[in-house]
Amino acid sequence: MAETILSSFAEGVLGKLVSLVGQEIVLVGGVKSEIKKLESTFSAIRAVLSDAEEQQTTNHAVREWLEKLKDVVYDVDDVLDELSTEALRRKVEIHGSKLKEVSNFFSRSNPISFRFKIGHKIKEIRGRLDNIAKDRRDFQFSTEQVENAVRERTSHSSVQESDVIGRENDKEHIVRILLESENDESLSVIPIVGLGGLGKTTLAKLVYHDRRVVENFELRMWVCVSEDFDIKKLIKKILESIPGVHCEYTELDPMQRCLQDNLNAKKFVLVLDDVWNEDFTKWTELKNLLMGGASGSKIVVTTRIIKIASFMGTVSAYELGGLSDDECLSILVKYAFEKGHEKWHPKLVEIGKEIVTKCGGIPLAVRTLGSLLYMNTDDREWLRIRDNDIWKLKQQEHDILPALKLSYKQLPSYLKQCFAYCSMFPKGFEIRWELMINYWMAQGLLSSSNKSQQLEDIGNRYFNELMSRSFFQDIQMFFDKEVDCCKIHDLMVDLAQQVIGIEWSNVYFDSQVNFERIRHVLFAEKDLFEKTIPASLLNAKKLRSFSFSYKVGPINKSFVETLVLRFKCLRALDLQDSEFEELPSFVGKLKHLRYLSLSENCRLKALPNSICKLLNLQCLDLWNCDQLEDLPRDIGKLVSLRYLRLTSQLICMPDKGLQGLTSLRSLLLSKCNRLTSLSEGIRRLTSLRSLHIQDCPSLPSLPSGMRHLTALEKLVIWDCEELNLIEGEDMQGLSSLRSLTIVGLPKLVALPLGLQHSATTLQYLCIRNCGGLTTLPDWLQALKSLQRLYIIECPSILSLPEGIECLTTLRELVIEKCPHLSRRCKTETGEDWAKISHIPDIYIESGWIKVNESNLHQSNSEV
Predict the structure, then answer these.
(1) What pLDDT digit, counting tens, does each position of 211-247 carry?
(2) Domain count for the chain
(3) 539 with 561: CB under 8 angstroms?
(4) Is 186 found in the same domain as 314?
(5) Residues 6 or more apart in contact with residue 342 via CB below 8 angstroms
(6) How far apart are CA 16 and CA 62, in angstroms?
(7) pLDDT > 90: percent of the chain
(8) What is the 3 state secondary structure string of 168-213?
(9) Which CATH number characterizes residue 283's domain?
(10) Bridge partner list, 619
């Protein structure tokens, strides 16, 4: 059942209303008073949203009320966006023409029609909102903040080992950890972490009943913690899990003494199953009460949340993976057929092979589908299960979607709407971290009470929170610990599509959907060159995002023109992997547009100058548009642009254009084969935090204006054959630089002297495939914040500089394909060993010399 997620979005819209009241833009007849009335009604409704969102799961009328309210909130957001866009347009015009400020925003140069239209829209919206406000009284909502209701769940330790498929290796790993360090006086905690339904509890049961565990621990206890991490309740559960003990105490103090008496000098293993508590203080309090056992006592924790595993665990969390397709098929057969009967239905088993692929290795999902098919030998039913999304199938309380939805229920509202928007990504899609953050930003999902906080930082925090809760998988990291890309499990995509409900649709030419309330479309057709947009989709007049599911290839001019003409409310337009020759000149009318991707278009040669009217545009992706000859002449008018990724035939970046992009935070230049100059206009990019220059073989130097990039935190220079950094003047002002990657610069003979100015900030330094580099400078010892140093494929470097032993913050050193340097750094006997022996983690050629547990799952090819 879809749920309306509104409270966080409404909070952001209300903030816009409040900020607009005092601005000159609303000082026109009737507009300010209407805005203030709108704000007042909006505030009253917002106060009850928390309770309404909680009630909607059981009250259909409340859910309908929320849907109507959401429609109005979106319309409020649109009209406020029109107002702020008009103000921004006027500001750009005044700045561009060097006119004096005018006292009245609505001067004669602004059309009367705009004033009339905005006033009429606000009045109409306020009328609708007033009616919704009246209706809310029928529901008697509470204005108190509603916390997520605590749902008590139970688990038991019983398991039939012969029923469990594919977890033998996982069990052996956990048992080995439990049995080692038996004389360790401290209490060891082993976390098992992973997505709901993977079988964490089942694995813990296998471990709990393993013969070796039974023999080695005098006392075994099993407790299902669930969501209520109440110390008194947990102590009672722990006591009552001890054979022969029944806790009759109701006060905490005698319960604590009873626990200590029962644990005293006994070697125990305790399983804390299904932990959701993120309060470190509560965990510390409980752990201190469990310290009375004998040395070698252990605690096994199962949780979906990496953050919990991190602060509870004394060893690195064991991240449980999915099962193979063969193992999943064995589970499906077990639950769908009576024992041995599958051999009579080979055709059904073949369909079953296709069914298990949609389960993504999650055994609970396989069990759910197998149970639905139990004793059913009708081919049509098996095909129906194969062809339907899991969330469309009837499920019981302990099936897979209720299990996954529990993770969603635990999210704060601001994360719920971010996760719901993940429905926009096709299944199996490898999602770039920057893409996801820019999508969220475009939809207005990133907000903070701290006005000085960067939107990108808020997005990064949201991403990390969702990642910590196992919503993302296959996380790929750069060497500087920044996320590169990730995937979302297919079942989590199903869940996202379910919770976003009628706002999202996967569209085909024959889709029979009511598009009036749809705001996000994933177009799932290929071969579009001779096709036009389905007529039914044209009813989606409030569409906010459009993207393709596949690499669609060439699309015709009419298709693109219809997109731009009909969907005026678009915030995100993703035409990646499509090919067309011309972007319509009226693209500038998409005044709400924040995200525009034209990447991977090998036919696009120019952009219309009207694109520069997109004053709200925050992200412009032109990566791999290798036929693009130039940028529009007024590119500098994109005053809101924060992210630009560019491939082009440019010889020189436009000096004047760069000067205007003062909001730019990230600039990536890739495969610009003819580029010979970045231009001195780069000095104006004082907000730039990330600069990537990749595959620009003709670029001879960096501009001296680089020194003005005082906010730059990450610099990547990759495969620029002619680039010479010897003078280093371009880096001497980089006082915020945190990460530097230099790869494939054959003309590099020395590190730029200007890097010394980053001595207190540089944490990550990677030098790779720089054959001309013969020495590392002695001033390297000045980099007092350096944490990771990678030296790869630099065969001419003969030794490490003096003073590197002074780098006490250096935690990881990687030296690979540097034969002379590797010999000098040989363990114990190498001439440079004494300089690096203090570093905890060292990788030299063939492997880790000092391996701690954090390295066990780490790739040696991160860069």
Answers:
(1) 999 999 999 999 999 888 999 999 999 998 998 887 7
(2) 4
(3) no
(4) yes
(5) 333, 336, 348, 349
(6) 26
(7) 51
(8) HHHHHHHHHHHHCCCCCCCCEEEEEECCCCCCHHHHHHHHHCCHHH
(9) 3.40.50.300
(10) 595, 643
